[in-house]
Amino acid sequence: MTDPRILVLGAGGIGGYFGGRLAEAGADVTFLVREGRRRVLDERGLRIESQFGNADLDARTILASDVENGYDAIILTCKAYDLDDAIRTIAPALASSGFVLPLLNGVAHIDILNEAFGRNRVLGGSARIQVALTDEGVVRQLNDWRSITFGEQSGEMSDRVGVLKALFDKTRGVEVHAVADIMQRMWEKLVHLATAAAMTCLMRANVGEIVRTPDGEKIFLGLLDTMGHIAAAQGFRPSKEFIETYRKTFAQRDSLYTTSMLRDVERRGRTEADHIIGFMLQKARGAGVDAQTLLLAYTHLKAYEQRLAAGRFA
């Protein structure tokens, strides 16, 4: 597999950025999108705004009704609550020797994808980027995070991982890492994300705004430690370097860092509360880890869902 056919499910923030960078570098990329997004892409192209270079691309798109078999790699960028529908949509497209690279938040989706496609056809993957899709359909990068990390669940450095890395190596605005410990890395990202999402959603504020309160930093760092204990109980203890990095991140008084989950709440949208916060709370309970702040955050988000379902927002 030297020139794989790549299907990217979604051309929003994550899919639009990484898929767009691959297409910009000459890779064979098709975007599987909904009708509304297809109209925007047909009319305006795939536009990326980034400090690492803007792009205005002609994007090849298909709808779910157009799916045909033969894609060597499928990059999955859906929200966790859309995963079942996504699996049904992409299954007919995957070539017999093809593989799926999920870039979803968390780790709960891996078991679901393994069951659907087989463990040997599912890579582990993680994206570290802050990006948003504007009302005008532009993929806008919000800071200098731009990394994608992937690898075999087995830890093998396979040929297909090497091919995919080589494609990303040709792109601009992407830091690519092919690794032998992807599950460890995904768990570490989950510790980071669950901490940040729980705190920013619970407090409805960015990191700096929380840290500047009298006890915000103490609560933030306490939750980070709790998340580390939960991961360790699952066999994925975060490294000392990881914990030190995020202790600094979550103590930065001038930080503007927020999370996509808070942005979802602020726009009155659905969230991945169950997939991220609820998943970690379930693991905490199973391991006997005291997680009161996590429980408060999860309850807060579930109450938000009740209000959203009842239409009780102005």
Quaternary state of this entry equals single chain
End-to-end gap: 53 Å
Instruction: Please bin the fraction of helical residues.
Output: 40-55%
* Biggest sheet statistics: 5 strands, parallel
Q: Total number of helical segments? A: 12
Q: Outline the low-pLDDT stretches.
A: none
**How big is the Rg?**
19 Å
Which CATH first-tier class of the largest domain would you pick? Alpha Beta
Q: Give the H and E element order.
A: EHEHEEEEHEHEEHEHHHHHHH
User: Mean pLDDT across all residues, rounded?
Assistant: 96
Number of beta strands: 10
Widest beta sheet: strand line-up: 5-2-1-6-7
Characterization of the model:
By secondary structure, this protein is an alpha/beta fold. It has twelve helices and ten strands. The protein has helices at 13-24, 35-44, 83-90, 108-117, 159-169, 182-203, 207-211, 216-233, 240-249, 260-266, 273-287, 292-310, and strands at residues 5-9, 28-32, 46-49, 55-57, 61-62, 71-76, 94-102, 123-133, 139-152, 175-178. The chain has a five-stranded parallel β-sheet with strand order 5-2-1-6-7. Strands 3, 4, 8, 9 and 10 form a five-stranded mixed β-sheet that branches.
What's the layout of helices and strands?
Layout: E1 5-9, H1 13-24, E2 28-32, H2 35-44, E3 46-49, E4 55-57, E5 61-62, E6 71-76, H3 83-90, E7 94-102, H4 108-117, E8 123-133, E9 139-152, H5 159-169, E10 175-178, H6 182-203, H7 207-211, H8 216-233, H9 240-249, H10 260-266, H11 273-287, H12 292-310
Parallel strand pairs: 1-2, 1-6, 2-5, 3-9, 6-7, 9-10
Antiparallel strand pairs: 3-4, 8-9
GO cellular component, one term: cytoplasm
Organism: Mesorhizobium hawassense
GO biological process, one term: pantothenate biosynthetic process
